[in-house]
Hints:
The complex is a heterodimer.
Chain A: E1 6-7, E2 9-17, H1 22-35, E3 40-45, E4 54-62, E5 73-78, H2 84-90, E6 91-100, E7 115-119, H3 121-128, H4 132-151, H5 155-165, H6 173-190, E8 197-198, E9 209-212, H7 213-223, E10 228-231, H8 238-251, E11 263-266, H9 270-282, E12 287-291, H10 293-309, E13 313-319, H11 336-340, E14 350-352, H12 357-374, E15 377-383, H13 384-388, E16 390-393, H14 412-417, E17 448-450, H15 464-484, E18 489-490, E19 500-505, H16 509-521, E20 527-531, E21 533-534, H17 538-546, E22 549-554, H18 560-568, E23 576-580, H19 589-601
Helix pairs in contact in A: 1-4, 1-5, 3-4, 4-6, 7-8, 7-12, 9-10, 16-19
Chain B: H1 37-51, E1 59-63, H2 67-70, E2 80-83, H3 89-99, E3 104-110, H4 111-117, H5 119-127, E4 132-138, H6 172-179, E5 183-188, H7 192-204, E6 208-214, H8 230-237, E7 261-265, E8 271-276, H9 286-298, E9 301-309, H10 316-320, H11 332-335, H12 338-348
Parallel strand pairs in B: 1-2, 1-3, 3-4, 4-6, 5-6, 8-9
Antiparallel strand pairs in B: 5-9, 7-8
Helix pairs in contact in B: 1-7, 3-5, 4-5, 6-9
The site of thiamine diphosphate has 17 residues of chain B, from α2 and α4.
Amino acid sequence: MHKIKALNDFVIKFANINGTGSASANSMFAKAIFRMGIPVSPRNIFPSNIQGLPTWYEVRISEKGYLGRRGGIDVMVCMNPQSMAKDVAEVEAGGYFVYDSSKPLDIQYIRKDIHYIGIPFTQICLREYSDPRQRQLFKNIIYVGSLAALLDIEFKVLQDLVSEQFKGKEKLIAPNIHAMELGYRHAQENFECPLPVRLKRCDNVGNQILIDGNTAAGLGAIYGGATVAAWYPITPSTSVVDAFEKYTRRLRIDPGTGKKNYAIVQAEDELSAMGMVIGAMWNGARAFTATSGPGVSLMTEFLGLAYFAEIPVVLINVQRAGPSTGMPTRTQQADVLAAAYASHGDTKQVLLFPSNAKDCFDMTAQAFDLAERLQTPVILMTDLDLGMNDTLSPPFEWDDSRTYDRGKVLNAEQLDKIEKFGRYLDVDGDGICYRTYPGTHPSKGAFFTRGTSRDEYAVYTEDGAAYLRNVERLLKKWETAKDHVPAPELYAERNPGTADGVLFYGTSASSTLEALDILAGEGIELDAIRVRAFPFNQDVQKFIDAHQRVFVIEQNRDAQLRSLLLIENNADPQKLISLLHIDGTPIMARSIAAQLRKYFDSNVTPLRRSAKSAG
Amino acid sequence: MSYQRPTIHHPELPKNDLGYVSRDYEGAISTLCAGCGHDSISAAVIQACWEMSIEPHRVAKLSGIGCSSKTPTYFLGKSHGFNSVHGRMPSIATGANLANRDLIYIGVSGDGDTASIGMGQFAHVVRRSLNMLYMVENNGCYGLTKGQDSATADIGSKSKKGVENLYSPIDLVSIAIQLGATFVGRSFSGDKQQLIPLIKAAVSHHGFAFIDVISPCVTFNNNVGSTKSYDYVREHVEATGTVDFVPMRKEITTQYEAGKTQEVTLHDGSTIHLHKAETGHDIHDRQAALNAIEDQKRKGSYLTGLLYMDPNAADLHEMISTTNKPLSQLTEAELCPGSKALENINNSLR
Lengths: 615, 350
Ligand SMILES: Cc1ncc(C[n+]2csc(CCOP(=O)(O)OP(=O)(O)O)c2C)c(N)n1
Ligand code: SF4
């Protein structure tokens, strides 16, 4: 029978039961591979439920450094009888199925084209431990030990990780290492070790770090100078504020008084969280909130106020599958339109699209500068896949000579020099006006902030001409924003002059770039552009103009970014072809390649946008 | 449209400690209906701030949406103001206060703004003990949207359409006390003698101060059946294309002593009874305050005055232990941990 052979390049998946303590064992497994210098990208696939339901942990190992989801499973570690039928079916032909052989495997799970490795995990635990909780927890460590033998993970690396994990609880180190050894020995004594699918130390990780996008964003907020965080719990964004709290507690305590140089408030709901951010930013502090789709819906009334009254706001939207409560623990890029035009009336919001953890850090820090420079909300459009999974990332950097861009704010001395302050006067002709913080000057600079129409001096008016001047100035500011937001990343050097291009954004990046490499190997060359912000920079228009067809890759049903490109750019709808992925799992390189391939196999004019092309 | 007042004043006007005359505490000219109780409250705020010698620019005045929420435009013209969205002033005030604890925060809201759409935010700003004055200008109805019943309207009271209110009213002072407000008072817009000192005390209070001010609405306290009523007049002038009709009325004022009950006739001819808390009322006893409010309610009158106060309250900043320096004034050096710290963080993630 065919056996998959692979060195440092395969996908392994763990099928566990939610709440059994497998998470830390699994992440230890991934981290060990990372420490062996092999690029790794783990993903949690978990239900919206605290305990009992199936949960998976999928680890992509790729010496070349492809971090997107590949598709297909080479090794399945099945620790959950409940999901076994599905888990068996997912294994690639020639792949391996590691299972608990304490009880014989039911005949229905036997496939002829895969290899079975039965290890009696439960029996080993029953023999070794009397406490039921220990039996459960050590079972996880034992399978990590077995995999170390089967896949050739350096045992020393695992030992070090155990020691680090139980730092401060030293009593637990020896028992954990012992459990690991139990699994290691059993595998060695009973199976071909290592398997033809295996690992070997290499040097392809460089100085990269392993971190999830939400922690990266939380750190970005600290470096960006945020002092106020107001939020309401929602998956998958909660860990942004958790990380902010964890690191601010270390980094932002006033040395003299022991008091906090920050404030974190768990609001009563998202409406309130957004109100607090607006109030704080209005009053001169840097503030942010983090939420997901349902929260964004609640915040839209306030986002409209912030847009119209021109108050900076930083909102981190960790997208999940909608609509409504949707699939709370699955990923999508489906809030694009809702965020871009959040609120009623003619409203446009600045969006940033991070593709990796470093982007989350950099763009969050930058969001404060942008929001204050533009005096408008800036929304970081990350998602569950990026936010909640550890990902390999270049280390974060900070230039100590960098200073915050606080935008156009007049202080008391500057106000003294002005004859008459007008909050909404376009003094510089870029659509951005000067503001003042409350309490700045005894007689000058006070104004009224409101969501109703006003004139240049912030005086309420329903005069049509004044309203028109104001909203047209806001459009001018929107044009100005195009030069401030991050420019798209062009991959034109891939193959200059090709007729077709691929346009993608956010977390579709790694899978898309891998798919393009796959296709290049087959002689299909495509240009590519990664959009990093809305409003779109001129380069996006140029890219569309320069190609006959542009494939727009996104993880939503309605081709939302494509719609945005059509609304905001001058693009021929026939030209923009959607490749969509919408089942709540991260988009895969294989499926992108397969969908693209169809357009090159046949010369049929592709359907513009249909559910069929969604795959 | 708000009309700005000329800033020249009479040289003889009395000055406060800062050298300001009371007109320095005025705002734009009111566009509310003549005789609206809300204007009397604005006047009381002006008087109180002048008497206290508050620097106007050290005040941030915030509100939601409604006739009452428009009033910050009409007082303290040298202060920054913020009309937020309907019912959401408390969260804006919270954020603003978190950013700069050194300013004085005055929030104005209506009974619709607070007791309906904003009930959630109201409850939570009380719980958080935000250091501010929160004032509800309570007219039992929605003024700005033309007279619907609000959640503070009494059972049996009639809306402008003549429909009887079926629902039990929300009593904001009792709720504020129950939620942990550390300063709670009630007054009447026309009782300057009581209202001004109450506002002064509330502004000086450290922690959350709540004042419910009963404030009659000229336009929608109209007498059904009268030929001068709003409904009647509107029906009879519609042909001319008039969109709105607002009768000119005089503001209702009153003055009475502590321990006494006063009957006040509203614009529609109906009466309310105000009972001023006795000097013996123990304002530090939360339960006694709740009982006294309830007792008067049973007698069909509103208990007014300072009802409850805890002088030793901790405000939100103390509760969460933020630094004394306003967060908005922290320097980059205090905020950004720098590249060294980041390198350590990177190292911990390998
Ligand atoms: C979300 C939203 N819903 C409804 C309105 C319409 N609205 C404006 S003011 C108001 C009620 C105001 O009543 P109240 O707070 O009692 O103030 P008053 O005008 O009586 O002083 C309503 C419902 C709005 N502005 N926003
Ligand atoms: S409608 Fe009522 S509340 Fe509004 S301004 Fe007129 S009198 Fe005052």
